[in-house]
Specification:
By secondary structure, the protein is mostly helical. It contains 10 helices and no strands.
């Protein structure tokens, strides 16, 4: 029986996966940018770290291979990736579990893979904003920026690999601890890596510990970002990030609890 012209004919069904992914990513990005604490971690703290470290580099007497602004800016960009992909993601996801948001999303046509994919795309969108703001501050302070197109592409590659590694670790934390414990642990790990993880300062600045901290995801990301600004792809450090991403993803798949 044909439907008369002009008559509404419902056609229930899930939206295409790509549309689901784009919609979920947009919602996740808006939620992150509307949250004052998330903005503090994403933009304010990295900018403060950049300005303070550049202004204080000469007074502290840290030996750097190059101008402080050129050495420290890539490290602060790496801090931005770490703060968003690890700390912000872990805290937000932890409280989404506590309040039952993930449980409710699990009953929707949105698959778990699409949900996680939306979170990752949202992270990348926020990181673009971070790089624009922090890079702009760096240029204002005299940063020369990456060398040529190759340098920019290598920096994007380092950011993507770093996001994968830290996002997997953030989801591991959020999916296995209570929300309050996730909040405390994520902030503690963030501060420890910021202070001693070779993310802002090069691994060489840590003396004999330099070879050790380069195996941390923070150290690998910091070194990859600094190498990228010299138009060099740090293959070793990118492989370290891949290793952390694989291990973190495997553990998350085994231990993540949606409620």
């Amino acid at each position: 029986m044909s439907t008369p012209s002009g008559t509404f004919a419902p056609a229930p069904g899930a939206a295409p996966v790509l549309r689901q992914l784009v919609t979920q990513a947009g919602m996740e990005a808006r939620l992150m940018l509307r949250n004052g604490e998330q903005l503090l971690l994403a933009v304010v703290i990295p900018v403060i770290v950049l300005v303070a470290s550049v202004r204080g580099a000469d007074r502290v007497g840290v030996n750097l291979d190059g101008r402080p602004i050129d050495v420290l800016t890539p490290g602060v960009l790496a801090v931005a990736v770490m703060s968003t992909a690890f700390t912000s993601l872990a805290i937000a996801t932890g409280f989404e579990r506590r309040y039952g948001v993930l449980k409710r999303l699990g009953t929707a046509p949105l698959s778990r893979a699409t949900l996680l994919g939306g979170k990752v795309v949202a992270l990348l969108l926020v990181e673009v904003l971070q790089f624009v703001v922090i890079g702009g501050v760096g240029f204002a302070l005299g940063w020369s920026g990456p060398e040529g197109v190759g340098g920019y592409l290598a920096l994007v590659l380092a950011a993507v690999f770093g996001t994968a590694a830290f996002a997997s670790l953030g989801m591991l934390l959020a999916g296995s601890l209570r929300a309050e414990a996730t909040l405390a642990a994520a902030n503690l790990v963030y501060l420890l890596l910021l202070a001693g993880g070779a993310v802002v300062l090069p691994a060489e600045a840590y003396g004999g510990l330099g070879d050790v901290v380069r195996w941390l995801p923070s150290g690998a990301l910091g070194e990859a970002a600094r190498a990228a600004c010299d138009a060099t792809v740090a293959v070793r450090d990118l492989l370290v990030l891949v290793g952390w991403a694989v291990v973190g993803s495997a553990l998350t798949a085994r231990t993540f609890q949606w409620e």
